[in-house]
Amino acid sequence: MRVLIVGFGYVGQALGRELAARGDQVLGIRRSVGEAMPGVEQCALDATQPGAFEALPGDFDAVVYAVAPGERSDAAYLSGYVTGLTELSGSGWVRRTEPRIIFISSTAVYAESDGGWVDETSALTTDVFSARRLIEAEQLLLASGLPGVVVRLAGIYGPGRTRFVSSVLRGEVPGDDAVPRYMNRIHRDDCVGALLHLLDLPEPEALYLGVDDEPASRNSVVGWLRQNLGTQSNRVPAPGRGGSSREVGNKRCSNKKLRDSGYVFRFPSFREGYASLAPEC
C-alpha cells in the first residue's frame, strides 16, 4: 500500500516505521519535518491551508489522520480536526481515488461520568469544546461518502511517555479515591497494531473504540505500580497532587467491537504495558 499519515507525531511515526518495515510506501506530513526515518518519506505541510493536499506527490491507497492540535483551545481544535479533515476529504485526488481514511478521535467524546460502561453506541457530550469539535470531525468524515473509519483512542502511553508512572513512584499521585475513578488506556504499540489491522481489514465498520481490555480504577493502577515498579512506594503523596489535568469523565470503555474484528492486543492491560516501561521509570 501507499499510505499517507497526516500528523506525523508520536503514534504516526511509530505507525510509519511499521508500515515501512513490512514494505509499504509511507509519506508522513507535519508542519515541520522531523528526524529522517528509514523507508519513510516526509514533507512539511500545513493540512489546514486551502488546497494543501492537492500538491502531494501521487495518489494514496489509505490515509491515517492523526493530528494533534497545537494548543488546547476551540480555535486549535476547529482548525486541526474540522478544517484539516475538510481540506483532505474535499481534495481532488481523494474524491477521484476514494482511499480509506482512518480518523483518530478520542474517548473524551463520551458523556458518561459515573463509572458506567460505554461502547460505540453510547451517548456523547457537547459540554466541552474539544468533544464538540471531535464529534464534528467524525460526522464530517462519515457523511462524506468516502470509506471512512473513526477510531476513538483512550489515553495513550508507551516508550517516552512515563510521566504518570514517574509521578506515582514519586508519591505525587494519591491512590485512595473514595469512589472508583476509572482510567482507560492503550499502549502506543497497540495503537499502531490496531491501525494496521484496520488498514488491512477488508470491510471495517465505521467506528471503533481503541482501548485495552481492562479499564481499571486509579486506586488499583496506583497500587500496582507502587508494588511492582516502585522503590519509593512508601512516600506520602503530596497534598493536592492528582492525575493528569486532562482526565475527562469517569467511564469504562469496551473494546469488544475491535476484538471481535480480529485484533489481538499486545498489551491487554496496564500491567503488561507498564511493566514493559519499567527500565524508563
What does this structure look like?
- The model is unreliable at 232-247 (pLDDT under 50).
- Helix 1 links the parallel strand 1 (2-6) and strand 2.
- Helices cover 33% and strands 18% of the residues.
- It is globular.
- It has one domain (2-157, 184-214, 250-266): NAD(P)-binding Rossmann-like Domain (Rossmann fold, 3-Layer(aba) Sandwich).
- The strands form four sheets. The protein has a seven-stranded parallel β-sheet with strand order 3-2-1-4-5-7-11, sandwiched between helices. Strands 6-13 form a two-stranded parallel sheet.
- It is built from nine helices and 13 strands.
How would you concisely characterize the structure shown here?
The chain is α/β, with parallel strands linked by helices and 281 residues long. It has 9 helices and 13 strands.
